[in-house]
């Protein structure tokens, strides 16, 4: 009897001890985990970020600091099947938050320390921005070893994939009207970054890979990974030339002197890509034609524009606006930054051309319905005498001048 109760007591004791140990271990583990999260949060600049959020009341309202659990749930624990893209700086996952919002979650590559500051930098820059044609940042998570950025999800893919995936069943070639609209919207976004916000922002990596299309084919400029605020000390000298080959401003490449005009150059390459359907660098071309910017300019100088325009968009109706856009592209690609137009001017020109196309389409529909055959644009007001070499668009501007004021209206909403 005695022995038995003793044995019972020992067993109970052991069980209690075991449970206690387990609880302690679990507690320690949990504390460790919490500590780890807190450590990462601090390492990743969480406090700096919180301060910034507090001081910028306006943007903190729509920016959120997410927990890891939230983002794990959103991405099925960062499952492989959720990966939508891989860039130079990391991996992009598609996720769905508890409230059904679709998000793109950007995870920096593990290891390189310098990328942490790049991430925080991207975040702080993006939080200031609220523009229809710029990808919105919804928040971030700093509790992981590498910080995560949460963006609105842009469903229709990159402009690059739409231009260069010809022949693939999924994508039909973009119409000239749509290319022009996308160009105008991208220019709007860049003009906003350069002129409308203080201090101005240079994107630094303008390329078709970084222009996303939403469900309504609205252009959204993304990837501010290497954008930084223009240094206030005016000299603009930066330690490292960053950007993508084929889009890189040659002047910036040689001088490391960064200005808004570097974005203008890269945007010129984007225009060239939209016009020709060719990549910024084509390794299968002969030596002199590898670089699209050079190829476009030499073709323009040799009066061969219609030979190099993407056959998917080349037709009689489009030719006038195609020529005008080619002239804009050429000006953007000037060797000297000071000879390039500002982004505001480019945006205005492209908005005007977009509206001409839209108007033209509407008139063609009206003509069709009413049975009228008269061409409202009038042959006389659509000049054939374009002098591409002079780089002047005065001839065409005069022809369309009267329509301008009303046509620019819709674009005022975007600002
Ligand atoms: N907000 C988003 N919505 C939907 N897809 C996105 C979003 N952001 C990025 N992606 C996808 O993820 C891919 C990688 O994007 P990311 O910006 O990281 O790299 P990148 O632009 O290709 O390269 P780099 O970072 O070197 O400039 C993109 O090409 C795009 O397909
Ligand atoms: C974008 O998505 C919408 C809706 O899914 C589709 O109708 C449209 O054709 C797509 N645009 C492009 C350029 O693929
Ligand atoms: C796309 O257009 C429709 C109809 O105009 C609008 O209701 C919807 O909000 C738009 N989607 C986006 C993402 O802007």
UniProtKB/TrEMBL annotation:
Source organism's superkingdom? Eukaryota
**Gene Ontology CC terms, in alphabetical order:** plasma membrane
Question: What membrane topology does the annotation report for this chain?
Answer: Single-pass type I membrane protein
Q: Which UniProt keywords apply?
A: ATP-binding, Kinase, Membrane, Nucleotide-binding, Serine/threonine-protein kinase, Signal, Transferase, Transmembrane, Transmembrane helix
Q: Does the keyword Membrane apply?
A: yes
Q: Where is the Protein kinase domain?
A: 78-353
Which chemical reaction does it catalyze? L-seryl-[protein] + ATP = O-phospho-L-seryl-[protein] + ADP + H(+); L-threonyl-[protein] + ATP = O-phospho-L-threonyl-[protein] + ADP + H(+)
**InterPro entries of this UniProt entry?**
Kinase-like_dom_sf, Prot_kinase_dom, Protein_kinase_ATP_BS, Ser-Thr/Tyr_kinase_cat_dom, Ser/Thr_kinase_AS, WAK-like
Q: Name one GO molecular function term.
A: protein serine/threonine kinase activity
The residues that cross the membrane are: 6-29
Task: Say which family it is in.
Answer: Belongs to the protein kinase superfamily.
* Protein name from the UniProt record: Protein kinase domain-containing protein
Which species does the entry assign this protein to? Ficus carica (Common fig)
What taxonomic ancestry is recorded?
Answer: Eukaryota, Viridiplantae, Streptophyta, Embryophyta, Tracheophyta
